[in-house]
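Dear colleague,

Thank you for sharing your sequence with our group. We've completed the structure prediction you requested, and as agreed, I am returning the results in plain text so they can be pasted directly into your records. Please verify that the sequence below matches your submission; if there's any discrepancy, let me know and we will rerun it promptly.
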Amino acid sequence: MGGGAGAIIVLLLAAGFSAPFIIRLGERRGYDFFARFISIIGYYWMAFLLLFCVVSLVVELYNFICLAVQSRFNRDIGNFIPTAGMRFVIPAVLSVILVIYGSFEARSLRTEFLLIHSGKVPKEIGRIRILQISDVHIVGAVGNKYVPGIIRAVREAAPDVIISTGDLVDGRGAYINEAARKFNEIVPKWGKFAITGNHEFYLGIDKALEFMNEAGFIPLRSRVATIAGAADLVGIDDHGGVMKGRGGISDRDILAQANQNHFRVFLKHRPEVEKNAVGFFDLQLSGHTHGGQLFLFNLLTKLAFPYHVGNYDLSGGSLLHVSRGAGVWGPPVRLLAPPEITVIDLVSQ
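Please find the predicted structure tokens below.
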């Protein structure tokens, strides 16, 4: 490309790279509209660029195979070899289509159901309905627009208790107060509880805890909360944060605070399981992975977190559920990883 076109591309790349920093700065200075405007442009650009790189690699691999076949068999297959222009246009067009589709999928919130029969639930109670939300990432125009849909789905599920397993809030500004008010309108029979994720610490733990309180959530930081006299919720801080109040206590030590005769629900943001803690909880609820959020990137998240998404039977009668999350991080796009809330029905045997 010529010098003028090259300079424009460099400026666009620099602006796209700088967008997350500009957004944070705008939020901290109170420029909400500016921050929301940049977030829309910057994060959609991020999604396009990520997908463009992946699709380009696939197209280049196809091109390499064609050239290798032509060289090996000494045959002209020029009609099957894409031109340089096609190797740019095809990834660009496909990436735009995928971003458009993924933006709709990101709004297609699903309600997953998990039924657990347990003798620890008294017959006079019958059923305890727990609703898990995770990884909402309330921030700017990107995260805040998912809140009304989440609120509607929560109301329809009519839970007895609501649990947030981390990364509930991820930004500042007036829209954060609006989201807090909406969550505060929901008052389940046995309350709302939340644990911290890594993004609560990125935001600033004091600000995150303030939001939880305004939204009506009780933070569980190395604490146990008993509901219905039959289930213990055990929450810990995400180990990627400062972990104020947790210190060097292991998962097993914290779980030991729970009543072994109660159904023990362990709330841990990352889907990681300490071996010596298995058997000390009946159900672990986690999130963090987003199910990869974008197809093909789930291969990387699976390498980092073998317990990636869904249900896993562990030894000692413990069960792990990993949520795909209700919101998005960064780009408001999901690809073959739809958002979810999870309804867990604990039923007496």
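Summary note from our side: The mean pLDDT is 90.

Kind regards,
the structure core
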